[in-house]
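Final report, closing paragraph on structural work. Over the funding period we assembled a curated collection of sequence-structure pairs, and we close with a single example.
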Amino acid sequence: MATRWSLTIDCAHPAKLAVFWALALGYAAKPAPAGFGSWEEWFSHHGIPEDEWDEGAYLCDPEGAGPNLSFLKVPEPKTVKNRAHLDVQVGGGRETPWEVRWPRVVKAVERLTAAGATVVREEDLQGKPDHVVMADPEGNEFCLV
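Its predicted structure, as stored:
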């Protein structure tokens, strides 16, 4: 049996970055834990000071298939290349024919650039564009495939 896992991203602006990744992945804000009407209610119940309530943001896959995402505020900026990154399969992944996949990738590049991402580079495979390396609004690299 596989182990459930989630991904935590350190960042300067959790709520802002969560909005970007919700758009990029089709995710939604994660509901407050069972028994609580809101995250603020949960924070209060657990004695978290009010001035720390904006130090995290949480997303989930609305269909329940993908991992949860947490965005946690940290004081230091990103300084080096990611050692791990997401391959966001907006085109359907490499098993999708290039003629179908690539226009989807191009459309997603436009949508995510408008949302604050930047294009790092376009990579080719066998003479055709294959994927686009991008950076989210805080510089975290990811690929659109």
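The first helix runs from residue 14 to 25. The beta strands are 6-11, 28-29, 56-60, 68-73, 86-88, 118-125, 128-135, 141-144. We thank the funder for supporting this effort.
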